[in-house]
Design brief:
Blueprint: H1 6-16, H2 23-35, H3 38-54, E1 56-57, E2 64-65, E3 79-86, H4 89-98, E4 103-107, H5 125-131, E5 138-141, H6 147-160, E6 166-169, H7 185-193, E7 196-197
Helix pairs in contact: 1-2, 4-7
The structure holds zinc ion.
Residues 58, 60-61, 63, 69-70, 72-73 line the site of zinc ion (ZN).
């Protein structure tokens, strides 16, 4: 039923199509937005459009960035010989927040999931193997502890083993199925420090 007129209904529909936003929240946000000063609304919509327009994958590590090479990859102080493999840019952000990791990353942009039909060719795995042609000492596999994360970790370790490069896995203790981004920094650091050889 269209109680609000089509413009407001359209806004509510658009907002409620976003992940984690239910009908009630969408309504609350929509009312908030239509009461905001027009200038603020423009800033918000510009930020959305600009982000979508300019964000791309880093050519080196495949994290989301608005530069060809992301700030982490282009930072000369980072240790390029240690590569931490994560599923997505949110996980990278979680490790960056600890401020303790000095290596670089490789963002798979997904995880292997036979159930969802996501195979090794659907994530940035080939790109990881290409990076290993350079001088690399250690690959830390920090995919999640979900079934997909574990499957991916196992697959990667099997691929890398023959190259002789050290492969480690972050310690378990990261809650099963838990998204890395929701885990506190102490737990993340403990998982990193307690990593085990694969
Ligand atoms: Zn990068």
């Amino acid at each position: 039923m269209d109680y609000y007129g089509s413009q407001l209904t359209r806004l509510i529909e658009q907002l409620s199509s976003l992940p984690g936003i239910g009908g009630k929240t969408a309504q609350r946000l929509a009312f908030h937005i239509v009461n905001m000063p027009k200038e603020r609304v423009k800033q918000l919509s510009d930020a959305i459009t600009d982000a979508r327009e300019h964000i791309c994958y880093c050519k080196n590590c495949f994290t989301l960035t608005d530069q060809e090479i992301c700030p982490i990859c282009s930072n000369p102080d980072r240790d390029r010989k240690t590569i931490m493999v994560v599923e997505n840019s949110r996980d990278l952000a979680a490790y960056e927040k600890t401020g303790k990791y000095r290596g670089v990353y490789h963002v798979l942009q997904g995880a292997i999931s036979p159930m969802l039909g996501i195979g090794p060719g659907d994530i940035k795995l080939k790109e990881l193997m290409q990076r290993l042609q350079e001088d690399v000492n250690e690959v830390i596999i920090a995919t999640g502890s979900s079934l997909e994360g574990e499957t991916t970790a196992m697959y990667i370790s099997k691929l890398i083993k023959p190259t002789g490069i050290r492969v480690t896995r972050i310690a378990s203790g990261v809650p099963v199925g838990g998204d890395l981004e929701y885990i506190d920094e102490v737990t993340l650091l403990r998982a990193l420090d307690g990593r085990v050889e694969l």
